[in-house]
Amino acid sequence: MSSELIELKNLGKTSVQWLNAIGIKTLDQLRKTGSVETYCRVRDRGFKVSKVLLYALEGALNNAHWSELTKEQKHRLLQAVNARSGLQ
Question: Distances in Å between the alpha carbon of 42 and those of 67, 70, 72, 84?
């Protein structure tokens, strides 16, 4: 398990294991993939995730607790997930 990822805000052992399972093992890889694509890949891999993982990933990339994201940020993230999933 990547110690680099486990040290990020919002990410625990399980979420880091999920990231590793989809090939994301470094912060740089997470940055390049982005929170929306990473969330969708984890979800599409079959892991049971909630939208909190999406917010947690975004927060981790911005060094903020997921609950600090604004309603607008959360809404934009969910719209991006829906667009990527073909739901819009």
Answer: 21, 23, 23, 13
Q: Which helix (DSSP H) or strand (DSSP E) does residue 21 occupy? A: helix 13-21
> What is the rounded distance in angstroms from the CA atom of residue 69 to the CA atom of residue 88?
23
Identify which of 5, 69, 10, 12 has the alpha carbon closest to the alpha carbon of residue 31.
Answer: 5
Is pLDDT of 30 > 90? Answer: yes
Residue 50, SS3 per DSSP: coil
- Judge if pTM exceeds 0.90: yes
End-to-end CA distance of the chain: 35
Beta-strand runs (E) in 28-76: none
Neighbours of 14 (CB within 10 A): 10
CA distance 4 to 57: 14
Q: Which residue has the tokens 């805000």?
A: 9
